[in-house]
Design goal:
The structure holds 2 protein chains of 2 kinds. By secondary structure, chain A is of the alpha+beta class. Helix content of chain A is 48%, strand content 12%. In chain A, the strands form 2 sheets. A two-stranded antiparallel ribbon of chain A has the order 1-2. In chain A, a hairpin with a 5-residue loop joins strand 1 and strand 2. The longest helix of chain A has 22 residues. By secondary structure, chain B is an all-alpha fold. Chain B has one domain. Classes of the chains: A alpha+beta, B mainly alpha. The interface between A and B is large, with 45 and 60 residues. Strand 3 of chain A pairs parallel with strand 1 of chain B.
Chain lengths: 168, 322
Amino acid sequence: MGGALPGPGSGPTPFSLIAFDAARSVYDAPVIAFFVAIASLTTLIVVHRLSERRTRRGPAWDCGFPDPSPATQYTASSFAQPLRRVYGAAAFAAQETVVMPPPGDMRPARFSVVVVDHLWRVFYAAPGRAVIGLSERLNVLQFLTIRRYLVLMFVTLVILLSIAAVTT
Amino acid sequence: MTRDLVVQFLAQGAQMTLVLLIAPLAVGVVRRVKARLMRRQGPPLLQAYLDLAKLLRKESVIAEGASWLFRSAPYLIFALTWVAAALVPSFASGLMFNWAADVVALVAVLGAARALLALAGMDVGTSFGGIGSSREMMIATLAEPAMMLIVVTLAIAAGTTRLAGVADFFIAEPFAVRVSLALSLISLVIVALAENARIPVDNPATHLELTMVHEAMVLEYSGRHLALIEAASHLKLALYLSLLICLFAPFGMAPATAGLSGWAIGLAAWIAKLLAGAVLLGVWEVSIAKMRVFRLPDFVGIAFVFGFIAILLAFLTRGVFA
């Protein structure tokens, strides 16, 4: 690599973003946005000129949809289901347990999946636990006497002033 | 400078129109080849154009409860796919988009169109749109990383991520057969099949509830909205065929300095190669069956693994021979 990267404005238009040099990689967002805008407008105008403009409202495709039962609604977990299934073993440490009663036993078979979201565990649950643990330990600070609070303030002031004295 | 920009703008506009006009023909060729191989008469070659015209003439029925997103998404999806198709060099490598965006931007534009389509699929709230959208996203999580690996491999080989630059590189070095490029080719073909909802990933000819992906998302659309979605999917097929041609068979493409005669040769070569690609796709589709949805990770995963091996090989051979 070596050398400084070219700054903005060294490409064909003032907004070009260039990595290394113009012969390797250029990205010019305004040109792309301009063409997307032109293409959308052209499409809108041409289609509205050429096509039948009437629009009617009708019921949605009736395949379990009009049933107001929550079991037929499409939910966030329905959306995640294929992803969970594909990445279950690799990314989510999924564990499936099947309890199949023997013939003659009238209990229903049970199927359960345990999914561990590592991202949640590391980036949300662990910091959350740390914050709660810390605040529980610092809770005692709420119940000191006035004399102790004054001492704390006095000590803080002395520390700050000594830092100021050393640095200036 | 301004006159130059105007000429480039016009040439780019001509290319956009051309891609738009030829895309339904490619689809017609695929359908015709499939029908003939199954000993059916098959629809006329121009059937895709007739279908679009018919859909445009019909009134649109919009489901109760559909929001503004549902109505505006087809226009945006079409426009984004159209611009993406224009980013791929077709008959000449020196057009305007040559310097405006590279293949990474192309993947991003297509990703935006895909996100809009998935949102529109879920807008009405039916389970059909939902399964379509979630499966589309599941396939995208597998295909997009593979696509980026292919991009990196080509960038290592050609020293640029600009599609036109890669094409120029392979025109200049047509016989440089490399293992990493062969692996990238297989990988890109698999990604193209997955992205275009072709067999074995999805069957564009059926509405079988348990297996459909793309058709499930667009089930609520009709009239001009459906025409736009269909046209966008035709464009996407032409885009991926052009991409394969541009990266792995760019011979005949006019270089940046070519005049009108060079462009004419490039145009004839591009159309011939595009239609040949459509014939190959038709043959492929009759020779293989649709896969179960949850076997797809294995199939598209091959693309990812091949892309990864291709990068490793590209790094290794570069270290030895460069």
